[in-house]
Amino acid sequence: MAVGASIAIIGGVIKNSKAKKAKRNAEAEAKRKQNQMARFEANRQAVINPYAGVTSLAGLAEDLSGSLSNPFANLGVATSAAEIQIEEADIALANALDTLQATGASAGGATALANAAAKSKKDVSANIEQQEAQNEKLAAQGDAQLQAQKMAEKQRVQGIQISEGGRVQNAQAQGAAFKFSAQENRDMITLDRLSGQEDQARQNIAQANSDQQAAIAGAMSGVSSAVGGKLAAGGK
Predict the structure, then answer these.
(1) Domain segments of the chain: what residues?
(2) Residues contacting 37, CB < 8 A, separation 6+
(3) By CB neighbour count within 10 A (0-12 exposed, 13-18 middle, 19+ buried), where does 59 fall?
(4) What is the rounded average pLDDT of the residues 132-150?
(5) What are the C-alpha distances in Å from 118 to residues 88, 94, 128?
(6) Which of 64, 174, 182, 191 is the one with CA 20 to 30 A from 43?
(7) Average pLDDT of the chain, as a whole number
(8) b/e sequence 124-137, b meaning 16+ C-beta within 10 Å
(9) Quick check: 189 pLDDT over 90?
(10) SS3 48
(11) What is the rounded distance in angstroms from the CA atom of residue 60 to the CA atom of residue 152?
(12) Which DSSP symbol is given to 57?
């Protein structure tokens, strides 16, 4: 009985010592993992706004009204050519009258000649004015078409600049958001692993406590057996 009690006591003491050591190691491991997670969380990337760098592209939209003009505003009436033709007709008429007077022609002939000359002057001047007015009109129309084409091209270029600028900014924001999300996923995986390791360390602490209690109980049982044996021996 005494040998068995001694073995129980010694075994309990040894187990208790091992349990204490395992508990210290588990507590140190749990503390280390806790500190490791704290440091990791303290150094995690800051939350970002991926659209923080987006700027307004309104400055690319310009008021193009200053480039517009009315090409028909300064259309003139073609009179200089008509005046030249009239002067030439007047000279021709004067020469004709001089000829009639010199040859003794009647007054009726002179009147008819004057009327014909006047009509000729009107026809010539009207024709010249029509041609020059038409030329100016066509030139103004061509200028108007050119201005419209230039305006359309400016608007097209502005549209491309604004659209492309917006596309680039949106792509940059999406890229920043993707990068942030990818890093967050990695960080969470690391934190989960550290947390699992800390949980395992705490489970080891609980197991060490249980083993220590069992060792103490075994030792106490050996002590009780030894004391009981001595009492029984003394009684005999």
Answers:
(1) 2-46+76-235
(2) 191, 194, 195, 198
(3) exposed
(4) 81
(5) 11, 12, 16
(6) 174
(7) 75
(8) bbeebeeebeeebe
(9) yes
(10) coil
(11) 16
(12) -
Whether the per-residue pLDDT at 221 is higher than 60: the answer is: yes
* Mean pLDDT to the nearest integer, 133-162: 83
In order of 21, 158, 200, 212, the CA distances from 30 in angstroms are: 14, 63, 8, 19
Tell which residue, 66, 85, 81, 78, has the closest CA to residue 139: 78
Query: Taking the CB of residue 188, how many other CB atoms lie within 10 A of it?
Result: 11
Query: Which amino acid would we find at residue 135?
Result: N
Q: What is the pLDDT of residue 192?
A: 92
Return d(Cα 220, Cα 13) in angstroms, integer.
10
What is the spatial distance between Cα 16 and Cα 217, in angstroms, rounded to a whole number? 10
Q: CA distances (Å), 126 to each of 87, 129, 139, 190, in order?
A: 15, 5, 20, 96
